[in-house]
Structures are given as structure tokens and as C-alpha cells.
Amino acid sequence: MYSALKQKRGDMSMIRKKFLNDLIFYLITAGFVLFCLFPFIWQILTALKPPEQLFKMPPDWFPSRLYLNNFIDVMQTQSFFAYIRNSFIVASLSTIVCLLFGSLAAYALSRLRIKGKSIFLLMVLAVAIFPQVSIVSPLFLFFRDLNWLNTYQSLIVPYVTFNLPLTIWILTSFFNEIPKELDEAAKIDGCSSLQVMRKVIFPLALPGMFTASILIFIASWNEFLFSLIFTYDENTRTVPVGIALFPGLHSVPWDTIAAASVIVTLPLIIIVLLFQKRVISGLTSGSVKG
Amino acid sequence: LKPHIVQSSEPKIILKKKKVFRIQHVKEQALGYLLLLPALLVITFVALIPIAQTFWISLHKLNIKFATDKSFIGLQNYAELFQDHRFWSSLSNTLIFTFVTVFFELIIGIGFALVMNRTFRGRGLVRAAILVPWSIPTVVSALMWRFMYNDQLGIVNDILYRLGFIDSYMTWLGKPFTAMVAVIVADIWKTAPFMALLLLAGLQTIHSSLYEAAKIDGANSWQIFWRVTLPLLKPTILVAVLFRTLDAFRVFDLVYVLTGGGPANSTEMISMYAYKTLTGHLDFGYGSTISMVIFVVVITICVIFIKLLGTNVQRS
């Protein structure tokens, strides 16, 4: 009787302890999630605030009425659409070219016996650590001489280069996971190496290519330095530079900036959330395997 | 065919096979180089040759405002750089920024990775939330923080004032020290969650039997963390810290939008200084010199980390 009571009491304290642990755990987690999301939520709230509320001191936390004019204002700005179009073209083309070059190289690295692989890998690694600002001056002079300044290719070329290391890395590890027996079977059936690559490896590695393309696209969409230096008007300037130069000479149009940044960021967040497992696996594959 | 003919031709076939094999090997090599060629060309012409050119330009007096004026001056730019007060202050700003941000990102990252390293309801949602700061363009996040830090309209002042941490609204971006803190906090917000994600992936490769074994041996959680988790996580930590350090050292967008390097150059990072010299003064000779120094520092950081990683791998 006594021991049963004691055990019950022990169970109770165990349960209480577990409950307390869970509570602390969920509090920490909730705090961290809030920390991650708050600035963006604040930006959305700011974008939805009517002008009379925006300049209140202390700031109102929530919009008093539904006010969408900031979004409409941004949408009606010609240059904003131009920036989005430019970013879309530059990021898409960079992704396609980078994926093409990257998958060819990754196939060679994964499947073919070639001398000098390690030298190639060293070069790729060197690019991965390259400070972009260190090559801006010769590239600027080079593009100027080619008459390439303020063109899409002046951005695509460096974007392809700087995304190649990650692309090659991700794709090589994906190709390595495809069993070599498949290659041999295809070769016995009379396929050449090129055919094996096209008909066996590439289709099977589609998930890897997809992962890589999301990461390349986002990186190209967000790039700032090259776009700031190599482009100078609406015809080629990309979204990040466009938004960064929004603040006017005299006052900063916070409401329009907020609306613009929500419009630009929301699609990215949706893509990332939809494919979060791919994004995470792509990003962590490099660092965890070392 | 008569049997003895078949016998005599057999060695020949083997010889032929060897030859065929060698030809195949040569073909394979050729194909391999062909496939590597596009990537190789891009890397060579857009990264490796330009860095050599940057060095070459840095040995010249070259201001592209005056197109014809390009004269070789040897290491004079470097000599000037070592006397340049603004260079040293931007370098030390960058080093302080790098050290402090990476330190806090690592602490927060490890802490949260440990908390997250278990199955619980809503884990997918938490992981999604963690990806949000990472997926927001740096420029946009810098603008967001700039508005939050605003001295009159900003939410940072409002929250801190309501909580009683400050007596009156502060001009966060208006004073050297608080501006630097503001830049650092914004960077930690953007990258600490990502660090947690990387470290979590590393934690998940540690087998749970190791923890159980340690528990049976009577280790408490603190000991398990220091003796089991941390040593096994060390390679992941080193790689993550290396990439974060390089990123932090190259910081540009964040500072460009948040403070512009001000007030009074107190948050000017070295890449900002290079950028301003290149585009503001159009002084390509001197700007390239600063760029070269950035490159050398980055290489140095890498060599140090690779040495650390190398000894770590050897030991395990």
C-alpha cells in the first residue's frame, strides 16, 4: 500500500518534471521562431499600414484598417516591374547555364577515370572561397572593353562562375549515389559514355538538379555587388539593387519599401518552404560530409 | 576452324583486348576533359585570371577617370596602404564584426541545434521558420532592420522602452558603438538560424548508442555534451565556422544598406572601402590594392582552418 503510493508519487513527480521540461523546451523554441519571423512580420504589418499610422510615435503595432495602397503604388511603378523582369531573366539563365556546365563536370568527376581531378577540385574550391570584390576591377575593365556593361551577360557570367562550386559539389554527390551497375548494364546494351550520361545518370539525378537549381536561382536573385557595379539603369538592374536605391534623397518611403520587399521576398519564402527538405539537404551536404 | 589455330590466336586476342582497353582509356580521358572544359574555362577566365589581373593593376597608378594615365609604380600602392588610417580602421572593423558575429552565431547555433535534436510535434514548422531569414535577400533584410532601428518610428526603441531597458529613444545607427552593435545583431539574425540548421544536420549523424553508452557509464548531460557531442561535432563545427567566417569577412550588402559605413566610417568594412575607392574615386589602382589584401586575408583564414581540420581528421 505504502510502496504503491510512493510509486504513484514518483510517477507524479516524473510527469511534472517531464511537463516542466517540455514547457521550457517549447518556450525556447517559440522564442527562437519568433526571433526568426518577427522582422518579416513587422515588414508585412508596415506595408499594410495607412500613412497616418506609419509616422505615429510610438508606433502602432497593428494596422487600424485594411490598407493596400502601398502594394498598389509599388505595382504601378514601372521600374519595379523592370527590376523583377531583369532579376528573373538573369537568375533563370544563370541557373540553366550553371546547371549545364555543372552537370557535365560532375559526370566526369563521378564516372570517368581522368588525371588531374584533384587539381580541378582545388580550383573549384578556390572559387568557393573567392571574395567577389577582389575581381571586380579587372572584370569591370574587361566588360567595359567588350561593351558589356549594363547588359544581362555581365551579371550571368559571374553568377555562373560563383555558383559552379556548389552545383558541382551537390551534383557529384548525387551522381555518386547512383549505382555503377546501372552504367555497366547500359554499356552492355550498347550505350556509349555520353549516352549513359544522358539516358541513365541525368534522369536519375533530376532531384539533385532540382535542388541545385533552387539554390543557384536564389543566390542569383539575391546577388548585390556585381549588379550594383555592372548595371546602371532600369534596363538591366536587378531587384536587390533596385530596392536598395529606393530610399530617396530627402525622405525614405518606408511604406513603399516595405510593400516592395514583401512582394520580392514572398515568392522566395514560398519556394523555400515548399522544397525545404531539398534546400536543407543541398545546403548541408557540403558541410556535414566535409 | 581447327583447334590448333584457335589456340595459337588466343594470345593475340588478349593483346588486342589490352590495346582496346588502352584506347578506351584514352577516349575516356578525352571525354572527361571535354566535359570539364566549360566549367574549367569559366573558372579560369572569370576567377583565376582576374585575380592575377587585380594584382597586376594594384602595381599601377590607374584612375579610370583619366583613361590614358596608367603607369607602373611597383609596390607603392601597398606602401601607401600601410600608412592609410582608413584602411586599418576598416580592416579592424571587419575583423571585430567577423569575430563577434561568428562567435554568437556559433553559440546560438549549437544551443538551438541541441534543443531541436529530438522529435517533437511541429518540428517541420520550426525548420521552416529557420529558413525564412536565410531566404530573404540580404538587401531586403538590411532595409527591414534599418526601419526597425529607426530612432522615431522604429520598433526596437518601442520594445526596449516598454520593457524599461532604455529611458529615451536611441539613435541606434547614429553613434559608432551602437551602429556596430546594430549591424552585428542584424547579421546574427540572418545567419544564426542557418548555422543551427547545419549543426543540427551534423548532430543527426551522431549515433544514439554513443549517448546511451555514456549514460550507462554514469555521465551526466553536461559531461555527455563536452565528452561525446562536442568532439564528434567538431568537424561540422569547423567547416560551418570556416564558411561563416569567410562570409562575414566579405560582408558588403548588409552594411551598404544599413549604415553605408557610417557614422564617420565607424562601421565601414574593408569591402566597402574597396568598393568606394573603385566606384567613388574611380581609383582602380588603389582599389585593387585593397582587394588584393582582402584576398590574401581570406586565403590566410582558409589555410588556418584547413590546418585545424587536417589535424582533427588525423586524430580521429
Explain how this protein is built:
The complex is a heterodimer of chains A (290) and B (316). Chain A is an all-alpha fold. Chain A is built from 14 helices and no strands. In chain A, helix 3 (69-76) packs across helix 13 (254-274) and helix 8 (180-188) packs across helix 9 (193-204). Chain B has helices at 3-58, 76-83, 85-116, 123-135, 138-149, 155-162, 176-203, 208-216, 221-249, 253-258, 270-280, 284-315, and strands spanning 60-62, 70-72. Chain B has a two-stranded antiparallel ribbon with strand order 1-2. In chain B, a hairpin with a 7-residue loop joins strand 1 (60-62) and strand 2 (70-72). At the A-B interface, helix 1, helix 4, helix 5, helix 6 and helix 7 of A face helix 1, helix 3, helix 4, helix 5 and helix 6 of B.
Describe the structure concisely:
The complex is a heterodimer of chains A (290) and B (316). Chain A is mostly helical and 290 residues long. Helices cover 78% and strands 0% of the residues of chain A.
Pick out the low-confidence regions of chain A: none
Provide the succession of SSEs of chain B. HEEHHHHHHHHHHH
Major sheet size, sense and barrel closure of chain A: none
Number of strands of chain B: 2
Helix content of chain B: over 70%
Net shape of chain B: flat
**Multimeric organization:** heterodimer
Question: Topology of this protein?
Answer:
The complex is a heterodimer of chains A (290) and B (316).
Chain A: H1 2-47, H2 51-54, H3 69-76, H4 78-111, H5 117-129, H6 136-145, H7 153-177, H8 180-188, H9 193-204, H10 206-222, H11 225-230, H12 239-244, H13 254-274, H14 276-289
Chain B: H1 3-58, E1 60-62, E2 70-72, H2 76-83, H3 85-116, H4 123-135, H5 138-149, H6 155-162, H7 176-203, H8 208-216, H9 221-249, H10 253-258, H11 270-280, H12 284-315
Antiparallel strand pairs in B: 1-2
